[in-house]
Specification:
Largest sheet: none
Shape: extended
Order of helices and strands: HHH
Helix content: over 70%
Number of helices: 3
Number of strands: 0
Strand content: under 5%
Structural class: mainly alpha
Amino acid sequence: MTRRWLDEAADLVFHLTILLADRGLSWNDIAAELDRRHGTSGHAEKANRNQ
C-alpha cells in the first residue's frame, strides 16, 4: 500500500512540475505563495482573492 502512495505522489509531483514549467512558474514561486499565506486562515485567504 505504501508503494502505491509513493508511486501516485511521484506522478503528481512530476505532472505538476511540467504544468508549472509550461506556465512559466517554478517550485520557488509556489514556496513564495505559501510563505505569503502563512498565518492566514483559508477563509480569509479566499475572501482576499477578489480584492
